[in-house]
Automatic annotation (TrEMBL):
Transmembrane segments: none annotated. InterPro entries: SAM-dependent_MTases_sf (IPR029063), SAM_O-MeTrfase (IPR002935). One of its GO terms (biological process) is methylation. It comes from the Eukaryota. GO terms for molecular function: O-methyltransferase activity. The keyword Disulfide bond does not apply. Belongs to the class I-like SAM-binding methyltransferase superfamily. Cation-dependent O-methyltransferase family. It comes from Aspergillus cristatus. PROSITE patterns: SAM_OMT_I. This is O-methyltransferase. SUPFAM superfamilies: S-adenosyl-L-methionine-dependent methyltransferases (SSF53335). Keywords: Methyltransferase, S-adenosyl-L-methionine, Transferase. Pfam families: Methyltransf_24.
Amino acid sequence: MRDKFIALDQDKCHFIYQLCFATGAKTIVEAGTSYGVSTIYLALAVASNIATFGGVGKVIGTEHEPGKAAQARRYWEECGSSIGDVIELREGDLLETLRHDLGTIDMLLLDIWAPLALPVLKLVQPAMRSGAVVITDNTSGASARYKDLLGYLRAPDSGFRNLTLPYSKGLEMSVYLPNQTQ
Ligand SMILES: C[S@@+](CC[C@H](N)C(=O)[O-])C[C@H]1O[C@@H](n2cnc3c(N)ncnc32)[C@H](O)[C@@H]1O
């Protein structure tokens, strides 16, 4: 899997791109960057939100394979500086690289090996604003492997409202509303 080109499906990328505009997302954590395909969609939307509404923001990408990280940077360079300017790629194990300086998170994309998804969510959750969205890929196709994550998200007092969107193999959309009662 070290050099496999596994990107978020195009229709799912279109959805997260649209979702960034709906939520005005400016600060996003992408757990699992690989060659940086989904990052491009997120960065385009974040750059546009910043240009429209002002303020600052970034897409925090994460990748521990140096070859993938280097190629991702080359792709982003090809896209132009408006993309690269809003991407901060953190290289190394994301359970370490996401321990600091997250700011206030509007969105978390969990496109990572399933056993890492819940630990990453728990790491990022304290930085998530109310109304932040967590998108998790493949939650129907790999529901057994996501059992701990889905159990956590769907617990009655989790603070998350969850919906499985009918994309191929499922795409979980979870909205973080820690202070809202049912
Ligand atoms: C499914 S791919 C991400 C695809 C990407 N979101 C896209 O759409 O182009 C998951 C990536 O997570 C990376 N990864 C796995 N474990 C990691 C870890 N502990 N820290 C950082 N990255 C990791 C893998 O190397 C892989 O490239």
